[in-house]
Amino acid sequence: MNPHELFQEEVKSNIKGLGDDQDMQALSRVWIREVARHKWAYNFSWLGRPAIQFPNDAWGLQEIIWKVKPDLIIETGIAHGGSLIFSASMLAMLDLCEAIESGQILDPKNSSRKVIGIDIDIRSHNREAIEAHPMASRITMLEGSSVSEDIVAQVHKLAEGYQSVLVCLDSNHTHDHVLAELNAYAKLVTPGSYCIVYDTLIEDMPADMFPDRPWCPGNSPKTAVMEFLKSNEEFFVDKDIQHKLQITVAVDGFLCRSK
Q: How many domains does the chain have?
């Protein structure tokens, strides 16, 4: 094997070791539980917009985007827009790299790669900030429930013709809502790509962590994922990603479509 192949074999061994280390995974859950009271995820931004994401998960998403090379990313949940800006900037990087490799001149405002963001309430100050951002030309925002017939139909229409589709679900975290999102959007995921379900960690946290929320252990994104997988055998949980990251909100939430 060449040096790169040897390094990749070492990485695989590292990830397997992390996956086998139950104490390390338990420690990660304890750390997440303790840092949650400080609203740690609220403290980070991407290209100027609050992202409300764990940095590890952003890095993991970057790796998935480079591997899959999607031309469309669908996201439920917009908030301040940092995640949309992140996805749009990753697509811009794909375009730039492909232009460099092919020797073409890149027109950053004329790319077919797009991000669709859905939120039941896009606040005016957030919409204005997102629309004023340099990445705005790549972003389409839809306001409404992500599981309403009208919004689902709009997304499916917008997704027509795209060859590689990635989906990220991060809105209402109740079992019924996430399961409805999975049933609505997972079918748009192309083989080899992913449907990422965020905040599955709710299932592994103490119930009293969510006193003012409609979700809790037993009524969470992870329970929805487990229900969805029972009747959608073309998807599997890519556990290598969570083992690699350790600090992640998406334990058992990185769903890869195999066919």
A: 1
